[in-house]
Amino acid sequence: MNIYLRLFVISLCFFACDSKQKEGTENSNMAETFREIDFSADYTGSNDRNLLLSDIVEAVEYVQLETTDECLIDNFASYTITDKGIYVLNKKYTKEEVFRFDRVTGKFIKQIGHTGQGPQDMLHPSYLYAEDSLLYISSNVTDKVYVYDNNGKYIRTVPLPEETFGEEITVIKDKYIICHPGKKIRTDANDNLESFLSRYISVAILDMDGKELFLQNDTLQGAGLPDISLDWNPKRWYHNNQLNYYNEVDATVYAVNENGIKPRYKFNLGKNRWIVAGKAAKKHMEYIKFHYIRETNDYLFIYWNQNQKPYFAYFDKKSGNLDVQEQKVYKKGRFWHLLAYGPQNDIDGCGNYFGPGNGAGNILGSIVFVITPDNIDRVREDLGKAENVKFPEKRQQLLKMLDERKEDDNPILVIYKLKK
Q: What is the DSSP letter of 404?
């Protein structure tokens, strides 16, 4: 029997939010007080305090991925890190490969699976997730998840409903697949837009047969809404082994597990929200666009863009203060492709360029920065200028690794361990 849950009642005439929970799930006992964070102010020129990386990070490690003829990484498309290994999706044109490296040394171990049309092959891999001893490889073309063990043995293929499929997946206890489909445009039988109606499915929980157990489905209706700059995939992160995500439609942070979802934080955006006065914002850049959220016991670390400017903030959970710092852009592209330094790196001095996708690989309690030929010169320059870092020996270690690195070597992973 289906149990229908009403999560929020939103009065806007074109917005309706429905959630349904199917047999096999119950409301979670995730005990926490629901809180509101105010983002409604004008943050232009904000510099409440000098944000330090050491406020949220306690340690750093470096892993140079081994380079051999069998594992040349052309395009670092996706990665996932566990205690047992580092898995990298190399994807460029027709080349699609998944490599496994040693977690500590970075030594190449083996290629996982193969692309093809065979019954045990994967096709068009797009995202990686590892849980315990299994590796999950999703495809945004086939709407399937291909499952292999650490040794590359094929386990099974899980077909997922197109409606609820999102290439960025999470797996809980090797029993439940969590999808974050994000923005979906509805079309009719002739592939035409149905009355300018779009959907935003922020989370779907499915079993290993692809059966939907829970769905949070936000439906948007109104002129021009399919063109709203909504993320295709909601922002998600872990804290204390708990998966969280930010729903862009109702501006709410939720905790999610196999039992369902629970709201944790409401972001009060006021005039900075993209939905204003019952209609979509015409100039998307004027409104807050969140890109990156991480969490410790003391802080929420939040990065957003507004008016082609990057902003970083720490929300102090104890005091309720939101310290915001506007920053200069390191690399400027379209509205959602800004890169900036983020908090001052007083850990090792390495230049961390925060932007969409940075640290996208799922590793519990960490921020990951990938050093590639595209940014290595800037990293070396930043390390040379760094002063008063907490781990000078790590800074020297990284400088040595950069000096020893050959031009065609595989990337170096810089892994910052978050405080609890």
A: H
